Amino acid sequence: xxxxxxxxxxxxxxxxxxxxxxxxxxxxxxxxxxxxxxxxxxxxxxxxxxxxxxxxxxxxxxxxxxxxxxxxxxxxxxxxxxxxxxxxxxxxxxxxxxxxxxxxxxxxxxxxxxxxxxxxxxxxxxxxxxxxxxxxxxxxxxxxxxxxxxxxxxxxxxxxxxxxxxxxxxxxxxxxxxxxxxxxxxxxxxxxxxxxxxxxxxxxxxxxxxxxxxxxxxxxxxxxxxxxxxxxxxxxxxxxxxxxxxxxxxxxxxxxxxxxxxxxxxxxxxxxxxxxxxxxxxxxxxxxxxxxxxxxxxxxxxxxxxxxxxxxxxxxxxx
Length: 319
Fold this sequence. Notes:
Elements: H1 2-21, H2 24-31, H3 35-62, H4 69-85, H5 91-104, H6 107-135, H7 144-168, H8 171-187, H9 193-217, H10 224-237, H11 249-260, H12 265-282, H13 285-300, H14 306-317
Helix pairs in contact: 1-11, 2-12, 3-4, 3-6, 3-9, 3-12, 4-5, 4-13, 5-6, 6-9, 6-10, 7-8, 9-10, 9-12, 10-11, 11-12
């Protein structure tokens, strides 16, 4: 049921936006994308993908499983492409974790390495977003004192509850929470967390660069101090899982925040659309990785015709 709810939620948001704004702003966002913007976005994505793979490799090594950087880069491109074309926006990461776990001989730890990788990136992005929203004027600036304290209290309650359950909870849940605590302490070592933090900041900077390209193409003007808060809010909305291949909440939040900032709802829709298209095009190398993986698996697998015939012949001849 949850697998159906997530894409339906994103589709519902898009349907409401098209109903209220029409298709014009979305088409404008696509028409205003220039070849130079596409080239710049592809170049930025190369850097962000390498930084993301570097973070994932660091996390995996912190958990005790090997991951070559070249393999991590190819897998990250593949997962980004799958996230951009499949509902939910996370199936590429699931595929990445399962493949790495199977290759490393530890499925559980391989999947958890991807979860920690994504979680670390989200934590850094949320922290940077809060800093920007607290420091710069924005449509949500006045609401932060009402939102941040309850969220911080909820996190503290969850941590305390998790600690209590790890000690006296049901056996299976208690073991899982103890594993999480051990892995978290491993990731907070001095040899791990600075690299995770630095690479995550680089990734967020790359997302901001791509967003700037989309905003510039849509005609958004003004100083960086004015468009930075809306950019961080829209990027944070991109991680909401109720989407169709990344589309839905991002466009809804962009329409709201750009309208509140004085640029207009149509401009927000155009910027979000341009950003989505640039992101999709920039992840197309992941499709090439998928094709190469498929060909390699087909080449390395036993032939479907000769091997069974040879085995049958051996059985019939008594050898």
